[in-house]
Amino acid sequence: xxxxxxxxxxxxxxxxxxxxxxxxxxxxxxxxxxxxxxxxxxxxxxxxxxxxxxxxxxxxxxxxxxxxxxxxxxxxxxxxxxxxxxxxxxxxxxxxxxxxxxxxxxxxxxxxxxxxxxxxxxxxxxxxxxxxxxxxxxxxxxxxxxxxxxxxxxxxxxxx
Length: 160
Hints:
The chain is α+β, with helices and mostly antiparallel strands. The chain has helices spanning 5-12, 31-38, 71-78, 88-95, 140-147; strands at residues 18-21, 46-53, 57-64, 67-69, 83-85, 113-116, 125-131, 134-138, 150-152, 155-157. The mean pLDDT is 94.
């Protein structure tokens, strides 16, 4: 198993975790596909989105796989007037991670992390380990400890 920056950070902080690897389909990086391959409910597989506010800049939103980021809610909880998603071409330069492999842990630069409160309802959640095809199962409280995340409600049901 390759040690990613995210895994190294968990080791440094002595946080217990489990790594699971799966076959990647480059044409489908959706959370639903990841959940299926991980054999976990979609609401327990969290995706890390890179967003930017008009006042306070870049932050990471960690939300359930089946939801989308509520931009108005995100603006409110981050103290911004307006929030938008960062363009795909900016994700890697900002975080050091590629689409489908963005982890809230071990980013190139430290950004504020906002974790959706639903994470606390599970014994563990699945997040990217920092590369496609690799997930980390970690307790949400431990994730808060390693990322200094703020617990808020950020997700909304994805439009059908």
